[in-house]
Amino acid sequence: MKTTLLLLPLIAVASLSAEEPFDTKKLSKIFNGKSLNGWHGNNPHTTDRAKEGNYKSLKAQQAEFLEHWTVAEGALVNDGHGPYATTNRDYGDIEFTVDYKTVAKADSGIYLRGTPQVQIWDHTNEASHKHGSDKGSGGLWNNAAGKPGKDPLVLADKAFGEWNKFHIRQLGARTWVWLNGKLVVDKATMDNYWDRDVPLPARAPIHLQTHGGEISWKNIAIREVPGDEANQLLRGSDEGFTSIFNGKDLTGWAGPVENYEVVDGAIACKAGKGGTLYHEDVLADFVVRLEFKVPENGNNGLAIRYPGKGNPAYDAMCELQVLDNTGSKYATLDPRQYHGGAYGMAAAHVGYSRPVGEWNYQEVTVKGSTIKVELNGTVILDTDLATLDPAKFMAGSKHPGLNLKEGHFGFAGHNDAVHFRNIAIKKLK
Questions:
Q1: Domain ranges (residues) in the chain
Q2: Architecture of domain 238-427 in this structure
Q3: Is residue 213 within 8 Å of 121, Cβ to Cβ?
Q4: Mean pLDDT, the chain cut into blocks of 10 residues (429 residues total)
């Protein structure tokens, strides 16, 4: 069978400069400049996220929304009070633009996926310098202290009375923010303010916050980024990584190679076949990045520090599940059997895979006994396997390979035609 190597234009993506945000011509307006169509009032701090005793129904907020939000001269204007202007639609991976103008001592922000926030405030207000306002607007202010993205990279605010422009890209939890043409947040992971142990939701509305000072918004437009494009942007440059698959044949791979084939530049497990195909390199700590797609009810796995024999779920450090979580045959699995989980030991967060048949982008980082899985821009597993209680492993199974310090990387085929491509490794030691 003739095969072709699929190479994505990663270098072009990586060369995107701070002064060159995305093509706004591709965006669609979500505010018509004339009415509040497409928007409603919702302060999530007093609705579904509210603490007991601070609840206000969504229905009750609509009259208040109309009282405090108006449209004037093509802008959406808020007097500093009332619930937040909220999109009627939920959004996932997006490119988004909005212009805003505010007043001295104002404090506002943009909630992405229903979550605070891209910060807006008065950088000249000394009273809020203790909170970081002197660094300017655009940061992911609710990120944990010291975490990338919390503080903007540069001060980019314009003077009061002038319009500022945000360009925002969010793919999974990975977030880029340009303010007035300057890159202020560069691919930082946005924390989930509501529950820091859980990733951002896959889809949720956008809120324009009101926080005590008058603020106007205009030129609000958005584009949902398709999966293939998001994969390229998330991956960026492969500098520092080494490809371990030539896209043509299985040179450098061992194990039951007869049960696998190369199809359109991807390694595919043959339907009805399986076994662990592994790369010949022996690895200790490393990062692997790859793309994969699963068929309906598809099942495979990533073998981590595989010794070259045995069942990778037990004899390797672990097998990271590759699974169609929506498959009808998997409706009642143990949580530690779904995609991204360390099989039988640690469960991953679910709901972040692309639809069946679409390519997903995944990075896995292995350091010592720790393992982190980032799927389509969202960290779905971040755990230290050495801290887990073996007595609680699924079905009481032993995992003799758990403490392996090195081994091979591979694919644990389970009879389904799961595909992998653009596979690259960076050795950490």
A1: 11-231, 238-427
A2: Sandwich (2.60)
A3: no
A4: 37 43 92 97 85 76 96 97 97 98 92 97 87 92 96 95 96 98 97 96 97 94 98 96 98 98 98 97 98 98 98 98 97 97 98 98 98 98 98 97 98 97 95
Q: Are 41 and 62 in contact (CB under 8 A)?
A: yes
Q: In what order do the strands lie in the sheet with 115-121?
A: 39-41, 85-87, 207-208, 107-112, 115-121
- Dist. CA 125–CA 385, nearest whole Å: 46
Overall pTM surpassing 0.90 (yes/no): yes
User: In terms of C-beta density within 10 A (0-12 exposed, 13-18 middle, 19 or more buried), how is residue 133 classed?
Assistant: buried
Q: How many CB atoms lie within 10 A of CB 176?
A: 22
CA-CA distance, 64 to 8, in Å (whole number)? 49
Q: Does domain 11-231 match CATH 2.60.120.560?
A: yes
238-427 matches 11-231 in CATH topology: yes
8 A C-beta contact, residue 304 and residue 345:
no
